[in-house]
């Protein structure tokens, strides 16, 4: 009888919490979002909550999503209510083909809008509501929901930044259809988003920030010249926009399952840089770049061991680079 009561009680608790659990699929910003590597929303009709950080000062985060002509897409913003920290108030700007906004849109520290695309601020209201989320037992400041209606079938981008360059945590919300899911690692680190960001303390697991590093990527691992890994890169422009990056290696194996483990000279992962700024960690041959800054000059891929140390041969890092201006000039 006690066992049956326990099962019934558990079922009741699950039923009680299920609506909150299903409300949004949680995802977290483990690698800093950039114009070249936005978070690509899997399905803009499904409800997602992306827990992110505007860090360092002046950071702009980007989200891209596909929508059909006339499709309504819910976009909103929630702020983790952190004790003794003022309500964070970033801006949201949507841009893409056919988007129209106020004439002469002039915003401080605004992102660069690709040529031929329109832009509009997403209205979030004057004041957020204080909200208690019972499943996570945390408080949020919820800004007003907004509905973006896609003017045509295309890929759209949302940029998120603070107009005065202030750092802070946020939750970007998109979509309405409730589907169970989310990122396991995000569930595990959920509580971190109710702690304040600190200057000099890097909040990203997978991105180097000069004033506070997660990993010491300056450590080098010299490999035997005879069996040294090799890497070559190829950038393939797509008719629909963006690029596919192909990373081909020899004497090297991608081992994402061994990240942070002991280093070996012929396995690990790669890092992608554009003009010296780290864009992403690579775990395989192919990587999609939705866009590249028009002024970008050099793309570089470096090989790294499982412990993130850079692989070197005769003291020189094992890498491959492309001249982006030259690549753009190819027929």
Features:
331 residues, mainly beta, Jelly Rolls, 2 domains, 7-stranded mixed sheet, 3 helices, 10% helix, 38% strand, globular
Characterization of the model:
- By secondary structure, the chain is mainly beta.
- The chain has two domains: 20-194, Jelly Rolls (Sandwich), CATH 2.60.120; 220-328, Sandwich (Immunoglobulin-like).
- Helix content is 10%, strand content 38%.
- The strands form five sheets. Strands 1, 3, 5, 8, 9, 10 and 12 form a seven-stranded mixed sheet that branches. The protein has a five-stranded mixed sheet with strand order 2-4-11-6-7, with no helix packed on it.
Secondary structure blueprint with pairings:
Elements: H1 2-23, E1 25-28, E2 39-40, E3 48-54, E4 61-67, E5 72-80, E6 91-96, E7 118-121, E8 129-133, E9 138-142, E10 146-149, E11 154-161, E12 168-174, H2 184-189, E13 220-222, E14 230-237, E15 243-250, E16 253-254, E17 267-274, E18 277-282, E19 286-289, E20 298-304, E21 310-313, E22 316-317, E23 319-323, H3 324-328
Parallel strand pairs: 1-3, 2-4, 13-21, 16-17
Antiparallel strand pairs: 3-12, 4-11, 5-9, 5-10, 5-12, 6-7, 6-11, 8-9, 14-15, 15-19, 17-18, 17-20, 20-23, 21-22
